[in-house]
Amino acid sequence: MSHKMFTEIDIEEELRTELRACLLGARARSGLSQSKLAMMAGVDQRTISEIETGYANPRLGTVGKIFAAMGLRIILELSDG
Q1: CB of 46 within 8 A of CB of 36?
Q2: For residues 52 and 8, what is the distance between their CA atoms, to the nearest angstrom?
Q3: Residue 77 burial by Cβ neighbours in a 10 Å radius (0-12, 13-18, 19+)
Q4: C-alpha angle with apex 59: 63 to 44, nearest 5 degrees?
Q5: Range of the domain at 27
Q6: Which residues, at least 6 apart from 45, have a Cβ–Cβ distance to it below 8 Å?
Q7: Is 28 among the domain residues?
Q8: What is the rounded CA–CA span in Å between residue 49 and residue 59?
Q9: Which ranges of the chain would DSSP assign to H, the alpha helix?
Q10: Using one digit for the tens of pLDDT, what is the confidence trace for 41-80?
Q11: What is the CATH number for 53?
């Protein structure tokens, strides 16, 4: 089994991209604006915007609060490759 070597930057970028896609999709399905979601989650609207544009490196607690405000919870999945 071969393993691709990832740098810390690769890993962060992949996680940021995945988080961005999950948040954009969940917010679209919920019909919430960034402002409304931010208010419900108790975070700044800028935090939502920065996550959705890939500029933020949010704390796990912040991410959890945002998804919980939409009635969702985060489940981590591990896979090879």
Answers
A1: no
A2: 21
A3: exposed
A4: 65
A5: 8-69
A6: 34, 35, 38
A7: yes
A8: 15
A9: 8-30, 34-41, 45-52, 60-69
A10: 999 999 999 999 989 889 999 999 999 999 999 998 888 7
A11: 1.10.260.40
Q: 42 lies in a domain?
A: yes
Total domain count, the chain: 1
Identify the pLDDT of residue 3: 57
Neighbour count for residue 54 (Cβ, 10 Å)? 13
How would you classify residue 71: left for phi > 0, otherwise alpha for psi between -120 and 50, otherwise beta? left
pLDDT digits (tens, 9 = 90+) for 5-46: 778 888 889 889 999 999 999 999 999 999 999 999 999 999
55 occurs within a structural domain? yes
CA distance 12 to 18: 10
Whether 51 maps to a domain, the answer reads yes
